[in-house]
Amino acid sequence: MRIIIYTRNNCVQCHATQRAMESRGFAFESVNIDLDPDAADALRSQGFRSLPVVFAGDESWSGFRPDMINRLRPEAAVARA
Question: Is the pTM of the predicted complex or chain greater than 0.90?
């Protein structure tokens, strides 16, 4: 499963989401909208108004949502060396 987290600089909830994903062993891509304004426009056009925005397979959500992170399938995790 591909996981993408849209973040921005100095976003506490963004950092918390990334740390939660890392602690559970999930691999993810991170897109910083401060560096990619087109990504911010695309998220707004999809109705998102707060960060982080997470796309995980068929699921998507915004904000720090440990409940949603905990629901991700274990096969999305990668082994840590």
Answer: no
